[in-house]
Design a protein that fits this description.
alpha/beta; Leucine-rich repeat, LRR (right-handed beta-alpha superhelix); Rossmann fold; 5 domains; 14-stranded mixed sheet; eight-stranded mixed sheet; 31 helices; 36 strands; about 15% strand; leucine-rich repeat; P-loop_NTPase; repeat; ROC
């Protein structure tokens, strides 16, 4: 039996919603087992809120001693197995809120009418078929929650509750609007969501005091004009209905602050929306809107416009992603210039080297069969524009096929593109190995980088194969593609099953991360690659003049051109192909194109300086690679864009990939890279597949002897090292190598190594390491630093990332670049790095096992140093996880390798799920690998909560410590709650689901609060209570990102700068 002292230590200050006000009360949450309450409970005279939960399904016994709690204002008996309200409850004269939800078929005693201070009654999910008559005798009742009581009947004399302000009837399966509700003229909040109402009565306009109206998922296909008479309405939720239009009377709701129209079928939005001058949040997600009225930009109070999931062309999605400010700037610019409708599609040609990509691109461009010479092969990426007619412009990306270029390819793979994968039919053989090289690898890449992308398979060089060969090979390719698609689906379903099992067995405090992973993996099921047709075979080999005259058949590549044009007009594939842009923006982009194609002509037309100075010549030669902000302003003036109106168009062009801008990198912030392929062309000289050619250019040959060139080539091939001065020689003249290296480091292609001569800085030789070139294994000499067996006086802390199935090529190399700022004294090899961090040795390795890839990072030290060891190795894992965010289709999980298994040298060591440590965790953790017969310290298994933004709370020693402890507990995480609830608001349910709440949980929160902000805050507080130390700001930020609430994330990082570190 609990003592009064132990119960008092569990007291805490907690906010409760009572009649629209949040009141802080001394609260106790108590699990009751067995049926009776602890005797010492009744001595807690200071107790103001009591929440009882039963471990079993037996009915809780509430004795008359409960009446001793004379200050009790809130009593929650949620799901306590009650069949009637205990008599002891009637003896609580100060009771204001009584929660009886999920007590099936509960009976209310007549004595309940004695609770004259009762203002909130929760009877949700009690399987009631009619409202208990005694409820009508509660004179001060203001909030009545009857949700999820299927087909409940409301008596006509419901109007006797003349103080009732809130009535919740959501999920009652009602097929019509309850007539009794129309008599509740004092009603301020009405919830009829998740019913089958279909139509709203005209009498609804009589509820003139309504401020909150929830009608989501009620089957509404029209909104009656009478709704416009509810002029006090502040919150209106019409989401998940069949609405295609809204009446113009919607503009009369001038008090509305939150309007939720998500998941309807809206085709248009009325201009009258512009009259909602107090509107703060407008939710339009997942409708069929192609345009937004310009009046939206006039909503001066609007802080959030949520339009994800619409095929918007005015404004384009790239504008909407930037937020309401960008949308206002867009419409402002449309006022100043003529609207232009442009049609633009990105086409990406992928495939192995010598697959014929460049030949096909040039053939389509000039409209004539063309073969490419070997010396003209694409090195990295070449981008051209192709306009087969006046209605469409294709931006064609031709990717070099050699492995060394793959690192640069990934940065150009975007969702809204058509991918053509070329397969060389001449060299293709019907084997698993050749399929993987020619097709499977590229499809895996697309599935991981741009899940849901549109793909077409093209068989090239069919002229070099017999007809029966073409049929056999294309059938083999198609068959293996189908098998690969089945494998992706199997992997997804296996991961979902694993996560569902984890979620069911997860202990309190550890479920929210698993729930997030499960929700995300389920979404991937709907984002699989979309294949267009079967394998289309082409040849671009020119025919002889005589054969051309004799043949009446069109060249095979013409069929591909026809296919492309047909698919362009398929709105299910490319719903946002066309877009509306201001004429000034279109002109600015055209002028940029001039600079890309003929910068020398721009030079000749510039009459501002006739001196022909070498400085000016150098400036224009550099314009081939980048522009300064000043040069952009000059182009802007030619497009009638003043400098203050330039940033919106630059931001738009950056979003669509026309330009590159890096305002957060000091070396690059003053430049605009107006021709991305040219930037990659700079890398091309350093990532050439023929390293001998790299060191045979005239500038290199003139500067270095043959022996020096041989040594430089060995440095690059064997150690991945290149000196800065050598790199400078490889670049075009007058190119600032600092800009190039800043770009390369941003892309994760190299890192900087400074010389060791501390006496004379001028003698330091600056090197860059390019991990991609490394091919040797771990040096033997490192075994003395990191022996195979863990020393007796040390422990090994090892974090593991298990990547299921496809692992992006070059991921470990980019990871090794990303960690460089965190480590020192490093040694690199093909699939590993050994370095030091805070004087601890760290070992990072990548290891493929069957179909999976394991990336491990480990350190060693004494058990007493476990906390420091976590601080050493965990930031490295965060770098890897951040990289994986660029590959949304990659399936991975994070683990902590059992330290006992490692030290014992066991094969296949047990992998604990990575999670934060909580107060409930013990000192040791048993090892399942050996049937729990041995254990290891919990310090080597559970992540310290400080690494995810949460400290362990200090235990309270007395009732006087309640307030102080509450403040200390909330200092790290609760400080963010106010900002989040102010900005998430109507999407609080999505956030709740993302944090692992079930539908009944969410309903329970819904009933306790009167508006979105309070429900959001309650959700966060409840999540914090459930998850304990696992409730961290990292988890919360990840949840917000998953919901794409980037305005909230950005706002948090701006308000609390430490979050973005």
């Amino acid at each position: 039996m609990a003592t009064q002292s132990s119960l008092r230590q569990k007291l805490k200050y907690e906010e409760w919603e009572i009649n629209g006000k949040r009141i802080t009360l001394v609260t106790l949450h108590l699990f009751v087992y067995p049926r009776q309450l602890p005797d010492d409970l009744y001595g807690l005279r200071e107790l103001e809120a009591l929440s009882l939960k039963t471990v079993t399904k037996e009915e809780i016994n509430l004795p008359n001693e409960l009446a001793k709690l004379t200050n009790l204002k809130v009593l929650s008996l949620f799901n306590c197995g009650l069949t009637t309200v205990p008599a002891a409850v009637m003896k609580l004269p100060m009771l204001e809120k009584l929660i009886l939800s999920r007590n099936m078929n509960i009976t209310l005693r007549g004595e309940i009418s004695r609770l004259i201070n009762l203002t909130v009654l929760d009877l949700k999910f009690c399987n009631l078929d009619t409202l208990p008559p005694v409820v009508l005798k509660l004179p001060n009742l203001q909030v009545l929650d009857l949700r999820d009581n299927v087909q409940i009947f409301l008596p006509y004399d419901l109007y006797r509750l003349n103080n009732l302000k809130v009535l919740r009837l959501g999920g009652c399966n009602l097929d019509r609007f309850p007539p009794a509700v129309l008599k509740l003229l004092q009603l301020e909040e009405l919830d009829l969501s998740n019913n089958r109402i279909i139509t709203l009565p005209d009498g609804l306009a009589g509820l003139i005091n309504i401020r909150v109206l929830k009608l989501w998922l009620t089957g509404l296909d029209t909104l009656p004009p009478q709704v416009g008479k509810l002029t006090l309405l502040e919150w209106l939720d019409l989401s998940a209905n069949q609405l295609q239009t809204l009446p113009e009377e919607i503009g009369q709701l001038t008090s509305v602050k939150h309007l939720n129209l998500s998941k309807c079928k809206l085709l248009t939005l009325p201009l009258e929306v512009g009259r909602l001058t107090r509107l703060e949040q407008l939710y339009l997600r997942h409708n069929q809107l192609q345009t937004l009225p310009a009046e939206v930009a006039q909503l001066s109070s609007l802080r959030g416009l949520h339009v994800k999931g619409n095929p918007l062309i005015k404004p384009p999605a790239e504008i909407c992603k930037q937020g309401i400010t960008a949308i206002r700037q867009y419409f402002d610019e449309l006022k100043r210039s003529k609207e232009n409708i442009i049609s633009h599609l990105k086409i990406v040609f992928l495939g192995e080297k010598m697959a014929g990509k460049t030949s096909l691109v040039r053939t389509l461009d000039i409209g004539k069969s063309t073969l490419t010479e070997v010396e003209d092969r694409t090195h990295c990426v070449e981008i051209t524009q192709w306009a087969p007619d006046d209605n469409i412009t294709f931006e064609v990306y031709d990717f070099g096929g050699h492995d060394v270029y793959y690192l640069t390819h990934q940065f150009f793979l975007t969702p809204d593109a058509l991918y053509l994968l070329l397969v060389n039919l001449q060299t293709y053989s019907c084997s698993e190995e050749r399929y993987t090289e020619a097709v499977g690898f590229w499809l895996d890449t697309l599935n991981a980088r741009v899940p849901g992308a549109v793909v077409s398979i093209v068989g090239s060089k069919k002229d070099l194969c017999r007809h029966d060969e073409v049929i056999r090979k294309t059938n083999d390719i198609q068959s293996r593609i189908n098998m690969q698609k089945k494998m992706w689906l199997k992997q997804l379903k296996q991961e979902i099953k694993r996560l569902e099992t984890k979620l069911k067995t997860q202990e309190k405090g550890h479920s929210s991360l698993i729930a997030q992973q499960l929700a995300y993996t389920n979404r991937l099921l709907e984002q699989r690659l979309r294949f267009v047709g079967d394998v289309l075979c082409v040849s671009v080999k020119p025919k002889s003049p005589i054969r051309s005259l004799l043949s009446s058949k069109c060249p095979s590549w013409v069929n591909l051109q026809t296919l492309l044009l047909e698919n362009v007009n398929n709105k299910s594939l490319f719903p946002t192909l066309r877009r509306v842009l201001p004429g000034t923006w279109v002109l600015f982009e055209q002028l940029l194109k001039r600079w890309r194609e003929t910068p020398e002509q721009v030079k000749e037309s510039d009459s501002s300086d006739k001196t022909g100075s070498s400085k000016q010549t150098q400036s224009y030669s550099l314009a081939r690679y980048w522009l300064t902000l000043g040069e952009c302003e000059g182009i802007g003036r030619d497009a009638e864009l003043s400098p203050e109106r330039l940033d919106p168009v630059l931001s738009y062009l950056q979003q669509v990939g026309t330009i590159l801008r890096y305002t957060d990198i000091p070396e690059l912030k003053d430049y605009v890279f107006h021709d991305p392929p040219v930037v990659v062309e700079l890398f091309k000289d350093l990532y050439h597949h023929d390293t001998k050619a790299l060191f045979s250019t005239p500038r290199i040959r003139n500067k270095y002897t043959r022996e020096q060139r041989r040594n430089l080539e060995e440095d690059l091939c064997d150690r991945g090292l290149i000196q800065k001065k050598v790199m400078t020689c490889m670049l075009p003249p007058n190119i600032d190598p600092d800009i190039v290296t800043a770009l390369m480091q941003h892309f994760g292609l190299c890192f900087e190594l400074k010389g060791n001569d501390k006496q004379d800085l001028s003698k330091q030789i600056l090197h860059y390491k390019i991990p991609w070139y490394l091919h040797k294994q771990m040096p033997e000499k490192l075994k003395s630093v990191w022996p195979d067996d863990v020393p007796e006086d040390q422990e090994q802390l090892q974090l593991m990332c298990n990547i299921t199935g496809f692992c992006p090529r070059g991921l470990f190399q980019r990871f090794s670049v990303g960690i460089h700022r965190l480590v020192k004294d490093r040694v690199d090899w093909k699939d590993g790095v050994m370095a030091y961090r805070q004087d601890y040795p760290i070992l990072m390795r990548s290891k493929p096992v069957t179909d999976d890839t394991y990336i491990a990072m480990a350190t060693r030290g004494r058990l007493a140093q476990a906390d420091e060891m976590w601080g050493v190795v965990h930031p490295l894992l965060e770098v890897l996880v951040q990289l994986l965010q660029e590959w949304p289709g990659v399936l991975y999980s994070l683990h902590v390798t059992c330290a006992h298994c490692i030290k014992a040298g066991l094969g296949r060591p047990y992998q604990h799920e990575l999670r934060d440590r909580t107060a409930e965790d013990g000192r040791d953790v048993r090892c399942p690998r050996i049937k729990n017969t041995a254990s290891t310290s919990a310090n080597l298994v559970y992540r310290p909560s400080r690494l995810s933004g949460k400290q362990y709370p200090a235990e309270a020693q007395s009732q006087q410590d309640v307030a102080g402890r509450s403040q200390a507990e909330e200092e790290d995480i609760s400080r963010y709650f106010h900002y989040i609830k102010e900005n998430v608001t109507a999407e609080w349910k999505d956030l709740a689901y993302q944090l692992g709440f079930s539908r009944p949980d969410i309903d329970n929160i819904d009933e306790r609060n009167t508006d979105y902000k309070r429900r959001c805050r309650d959700t966060l507080e409840e999540w914090k209570e459930r998850e304990g130390d696992a409730a961290t700001i990292t988890v919360l930020m990840d949840a917000l990102r998953e919901l794409e609430l980037m305005s909230v994330v950005d706002g948090l990082e701006s308000k609390y700068p430490g979050l973005s570190d």
